[in-house]
Every structure is written in C-alpha cells, then in structure tokens.
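Hi C.,

You asked whether I'd gotten around to modeling the 310-residue construct. I have! Everything is below, sequence then structure, no commentary in between.
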Amino acid sequence: MTTLDRFNLIKIRSLGRNLADNRKRATQDLGLILLTPTVGISKEDYMALEQWDRYTARVAAVALSTRKAVLSGFAAAAALGIRYLRPPHTQNIVELTLPGEISPSAKNNWAPKIRYLYNTLPSTHYFDQDNLRVTSIERTYLDILRLYGARYALVFIEGAMNQLKISKTQMTSLVRSLGDSPYVRKALALLQLAYDNIQSVYETLARFKLITAKISAVTSIVPQARMRGQHSHYYTDLLINDWLIVEIDGECKYETNTLPVLLQERARERELLRQGYGIVRIRAVDVDKQIVAEVSHYLDNAKRVQQLAA
C-alpha cells in the first residue's frame, strides 16, 4: 500500500466547481478535516491515526496539492517511511524544494506550516516514490543536517541505512555524489560516526549525546554489542568502556506479554551483573536530558569504589 493510499485522502476540487463551497460542504456536511486548502481526510480516520501518521497524512496531502514542489527534509523522511526525530517546534512543518533553480515565492505567500528551502535541486537529487516527489536519501540527509543539525541528521541516516539495508560504504559513495561543498564535507564527517544496524532513534540519540559530551571517563562506546548468555546471545543498546551497559526502554516495550517480557529482561540483567557488568536503564523519553548525567554519575561512583578498594 502506498503512502497516498494509506490515508484515503479526498481532493476537495472533486466535490464541485466552486472551491469555497466545496470546503464548506467538506467540513460541515462530510465531516472532513482539511489537511491543506484542497485536500481533506475524514475526521474519524484522522483521529484514529498516531501522531506521526497524522504528520505523514499531511505530508501526502501537501504533495497532492502541489504541481512542482518536491518533499524534502523530514517531509521526505515521512513519505519514505524512514525513522526520524525532529525539533519539537517544527513538528507540523512540511519542507518543500522547487526543482531545478526555481526560487520560491515570498514567505508571506506560503501556506501555513509550509517551509520552502532555498536551494538548487537537480533532477538527480529527487525521484518519484508512489506518485510522491521526494528528495533522495542522501539529499534528504544533507538537507536535515543543514537545517536542523548533526543529531537529527545522524538519527535519520542510521534509520535509512538500517531500514533500506544500505551499507555505510554505499551511503558514503552516495553522499560524495552530491558534489563538493562545506555541508557535503560535514555530512561525510558525520557518517564516520554512523552504523547501519541501529534499530532505534533513541539509541542513536543516546550515543550522539555521549560522544558530544566528551566525558573524560568514557573511552569507548559500542552500539549493539553482542553479549554471550548462558543459553544464547543477545545485543545491548550501548556498551561503554567494555563493562557498562546502557539499555533504553521504549514506551511500548512492555505493552504486550508484560510479565513474560519483564521476567526475561530481569533474568538477563541478573546474568550480566553476575558476569561483572554494570547496567544503566533509561526511558526513551528521558534520553535527551538525562543520559549524560546518568552515565557520568555511574562512572564516577565506580571510580570512587575502585579508589576506596585500593
């Protein structure tokens, strides 16, 4: 099922010749929510969507409403189904770029929550995905880095590599194909920190926070470290200094089979503690503000214990 088909979007112009009358009929008689001035969705369908899918539905509606513009930045990520994080104050903004060297109109002419990017967009930097025009993975990565910074770009590109099975070597080659510019060079440098097997945006965020914090006590950070158990092996979210394990608990982790999953988690934790590992558990929603303090506190305490033992 394509992105457009998922949401049963309705073109308001199809309801009649008069657009103003169509909008009134759509909202009052048909109970539609207008995602753009010309595209709507049933209120029942919209309210049943998760927050991120509501944004994706709006992205698809914007794509249906424009003749030339190309979905870019996080809008492209949403259309392609790539995991991402974005700054809270930009949650509903749809980024667009005009193809070629076409410049967008003045900002006061833009529709609400639309952001046009002032960049040249060669035809090789975008493609058609299920009748949606979207920027390529490498161009989307570059745009997110330029607009929102390294943390958001790294989260996106690790999600893209993992979901689309693109190796780091392949992605490096794709980014290089964008030419030579300061942001291409920054994107290549950031790729040196990337892994292609990361399955959670919060794992990426936690690692990025710890790397950029430059904690003197941290000498190594290994994501998805393979641990050997008594009867099987498993992977930890982060392994710091070869002995401190960081596990990030997602909000939905124990939503189903709560007791069996929790018991299995605790049994694994006891086994790791017996092997001499330390464990820090942190909720996904707390990673951004607490991960650096939590890890620093644990390492400081371990150092003090070692000093007293000596």
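If it helps when you're writing up: The CA atoms of residues 63 and 132 lie 6 Å apart.

Thanks,
B.
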